[in-house]
Amino acid sequence: MSFPSITVVEEQVPTGNTPLGSTVRLRDKFDRAITDLRLSITDRCNFRCVYCRSGQGATPVHELPMADYARIARVFLGMGIEKIRLTGGEPLLRHDLLNLVAELAGMRTLDGDRPDIALTTNGHLLAELAEPLRRAGLSRITVSMDAVDPETFARITRVPRSYERVLDGIRAAKAAGLAPVKVNCVLMRGWNDDQIERFADFARSEDVIVRFIEFMPLEEDKVWSRDLVIPLEEIVTRLNNVGDLVELPPNSVSETARRYGFSDRRGEIGIIAPVSHPFCGHCSRVRLTSDGKIRTCLFSQLDHDLHAVMRRGGTDEEMSSYIRQIVDRKEERHHIGDTGFIKPARAMVQIGG
């Protein structure tokens, strides 16, 4: 199968007085420490989920050589990044993924520690790759799975006969030692809201952490509306039908999910509620799209072309200077629900999950 060549939109590199080679850790103008990099390595995907992709035709593909992602990651680690999450698209479609994971695992943070390397996947190819990924140095894995019955799963992903493969992938990840495996479910009213209690049972029986995510306006098709969003309070009420729910403390101040367990200590649930309960005030993330552009928020209206600095022969110090100037522009919050809110020009699959 062949794919279109990479298309890159040029951007003027800003100038400023940021010192080159500075080891000051990344912080934005709101004094938020930036410690997490979401690194998309492809916008290809073998699913066409209704909350993300269009169901129509082929789309252009944007990918860089793995060596470029590795260099970018090393620069970010030298600026205080501690966690790197590989995303897509579907990152398992990159045939040289294991080499990249191994190279990242050999890098070090400013504190001299091994970076926390995570990966988000739809799980379709995971059963065969879970153990090799762990051996390469992967720390954690998250599987996107939006239903626990094959029919609903196929209706959302628009891919038949994949449910069992994803289930096998989750179990293979657990067996490989990538536990606790996280399973993400994007909830949409009328599509999979009947799955809430069933996912709670799944978390308890499969010993995975299930995380419900509110539907966000990041899809290619124009299907989002607030009526489709199932808010946190409704999810909590429904989960209490399964068992007595207990709120758990966050693992860190910047954690995106509110954590819950059951009183019998079987099963953990997370709820990521950016629409009804934004968590922008503690955001620690910056994103790099698969074509090498920095995005300071999922809902940014601008891309900032870091890869253009590389193509022009920029040094690591010049890349660091550019990154600092862009991070200093990081938005205070998103504006979902505000009058005049404008969706990003790119869908989630093009930004990186």
Automatic annotation (TrEMBL):
Q: How is the cofactor bound?
A: Binds 2 [4Fe-4S] clusters. Binds 1 [4Fe-4S] cluster coordinated with 3 cysteines and an exchangeable S-adenosyl-L-methionine and 1 [4Fe-4S] cluster coordinated with 3 cysteines and the GTP-derived substrate.
Q: Which cofactors are named for this entry?
A: [4Fe-4S] cluster
Residues annotated as binding [4Fe-4S] cluster 1 are C45, C49, C52
**Which GO biological process annotations does it have?**
Mo-molybdopterin cofactor biosynthetic process
The UniProt catalytic activity note for this protein reads: GTP + AH2 + S-adenosyl-L-methionine = (8S)-3',8-cyclo-7,8-dihydroguanosine 5'-triphosphate + 5'-deoxyadenosine + L-methionine + A + H(+)
Give the Gene Ontology MF terms in alphabetical order.
4 iron, 4 sulfur cluster binding; cyclic pyranopterin monophosphate synthase activity; GTP 3',8'-cyclase activity; GTP binding; metal ion binding; S-adenosyl-L-methionine binding
Q: Does the keyword Lyase apply?
A: yes
Q: Which amino acids does the record list as binding S-adenosyl-L-methionine?
A: Y51, G89, S144, M216
Q: Where is the Radical SAM core domain?
A: 29-245
Keyword Lyase applies: yes
Q: Which UniProt keywords apply?
A: 4Fe-4S, GTP-binding, Iron, Iron-sulfur, Lyase, Metal-binding, Molybdenum cofactor biosynthesis, Nucleotide-binding, S-adenosyl-L-methionine
Q: Which HAMAP family match?
A: MoaA_B
Similarity annotation: Belongs to the radical SAM superfamily. MoaA family.
Q: Write out the function statement from the record.
A: Catalyzes the cyclization of GTP to (8S)-3',8-cyclo-7,8-dihydroguanosine 5'-triphosphate.
Q: What is this protein called?
A: GTP 3',8-cyclase
Tell me the lineage of the source organism.
Bacteria, Pseudomonadati, Acidobacteriota, Terriglobia, Terriglobales
